Amino acid sequence: MENKLTKRKAVEKIVFSILGLLMLSSIAVLGVIIFFIFKRGLGVISWEFLTSMPKNGMTEGGILPAIVGSFYLVSGAILVATPLGVFAAIYMTEYAKKGKLIRIIRIGVNNLAGVPSVVFGLFGLSIFVKYLNFGVSILSGALTLAIVILPTIIRASEEALMSVPDEYRSSSLALGATKWQTIKNVVLPAALPGILTGCILGVGRVAGETAPIIFTAATFFSMRLPNSVFSEVMALPYNIYALVATGTFPQKQIPIAYGTAVVLLVLVLLINLVAIFMRIKFSKKNTN
Amino acid sequence: MLNWKTKEKIIKNILLFFAFSSILFLTGIIIVLFKEGAPIFSKVGILEFLFTSDWYPTYDPPGYGIFNLLSGSIVVTIGAMVIAVPFGVASAIHIAYILPKKFKNIVKPTIEMLAGVPSVIYGLFGMKILGPFLREVFGLPTGLTALNAMIMLGIMALPTIVSLAEDAITAVPQNFRDASLALGANRLETMFRVILPTASSGIVTAVILGMGRAIGETMTVLMVAGGASLFPSNILKPVRPMTATIAAEMGEAPVGSEHYQALFGIAIILFLITLIFNIFADFAQQRFKKKVSGE
Fold it and tell me: Residue ranges of the ABC transmembrane type-1 domain (chain B) (predicted)?
């Protein structure tokens, strides 16, 4: 009996240790990737690298146009996707009754979230670039990216709206406010931090997307900054791909690719970190 | 001046329209894919398209068989799951069930943060760091192979699987666990006999979504898989998965040409595969919710 008990304990300990080891190695592997990118790219970063134009066919100089281009694409995508996503989430949480309709809408959101990014790229190419004749441009790219992040924003907004306590709604309705007044003046302000967190996560996701912009917005080398929504742009993620995959002077271009990767990585990790902190803070506030 | 009832009704209908935006876009994607891609099926024949392996879109006469590309995608995805599932599920169990709460509050956000690392960064790592390493170790002409793609996709799918599977395990009600412990089972037995069976459909959802992410992943495979449209008979040789084919060739295919249609045809197949994954994931998720809520 005694023996069996110690054996059970030993088995438990062994299994738990193996699980722990697998967990630590998972995190370590992800850490190694980030470490190597930083190790090779950090030396390239300088003020000049961030703020000057590329020179000599993208073999020297900085990546300013890629930073600016990514900024335009991401801002455009968020500006389009946020109202769409928030309004959709309001209907889903505040108006829709449990049943078939909401189930269909949710299946739509889930499936849109699972569409491969290159398929979004083809859609953007066919609709925005060709059919609507926007050409390869900031406009086409931003619209395509907006569809890519729509599900992220809908889900985050939905979660934020659902976490608003029902007493808020009933108090406002009891005071004679209409449903829409209640949503506009009571529910939305309370859900705002959560919705904002969702948008920030959307920014992080969309800043790194490459496949949707290859055929809709991106160009490898540009001597000047974009001057209209119909300009093609350089973008950080595409710049990395183009430099390592199609660049013809690897010795000079691969360091630039690593430098660009560090910029993108820092940007995305910072954005995600902010979103996580906001979520923790927000969820504490609501449970208190 | 509108009376408030009409106004409320109008607002409700406008919001309903927005709520349908996702379905609208999804339908739009389906229509566009089929409009651009379906002609190739009638020209080549859908079975020929799927099950012959001559992908020579620019030759005369051209070949539009995607069998090697399709099997490339499948093999690479399976390989990625062989790596990601044991590591991912074990991590999820450890984080949800064994790790003290104060560590969990650090580890889980860290993994979620890593989920945001863009695919092109993984591609860069696989191409320039893992690639040369594999070439050296196995003595290959190139390190850009199916194996490289499997490893990188496996790593990429990790955060998705860990995060979702952890959610599923945490969602198992505390009293299930307490009841088992009170009956004299130790924590390990409770884990295998109570927690994991209850969370299983949630874990399955996590794995399917991880698979969906892997098969649809584009930039990483474009950069690390090597790009040769060979049948993946040896994982130490280059392959050309479907996503990589689309991304690499769309730029040079004239709009409306057969090549262009064939690339959209590949996208249709890819879309249908991920659609099936999503439907399965959704189904497993519903089952899980029922189980946990004790119905």
Answer: 70-281
Angle of the A138-162 helix axis to the A188-208 helix axis, nearest 10: 140
| Domains of chain A, each with CATH number or no CATH | 47-287 (1.10.3720.10)
Say yes or no for a CB contact (<8 Å) between B278 and A130: no
**Tens digit of each residue's pLDDT (9 = 90 or more) over A231-243:** 888 999 999 999 9
Chain A closest-CA separation from residue B32 CA (Å): 7
A240-246 own/partner pairs: CB under 8 Å, 24+ apart: A240/A210, A240/A264, A240/B120, A240/B121, A240/B123, A240/B124, A241/A210, A241/A214, A241/B120, A241/B123, A241/B219, A241/B222, A241/B223, A242/A218, A243/A58, A244/B123, A244/B124, A244/B127, A244/B128, A244/B223, A245/B127, A245/B222, A245/B223, A246/A220
Q: Per-residue pLDDT tens for A133-161?
A: 999 999 999 999 999 999 999 999 999 99
Å between B10 CA and nearest CA of chain A: 11
For chain B, which domains are there?
A: 34-292 (1.10.3720.10)
Cβ–Cβ of B26/A244 closer than 8 Å?
no
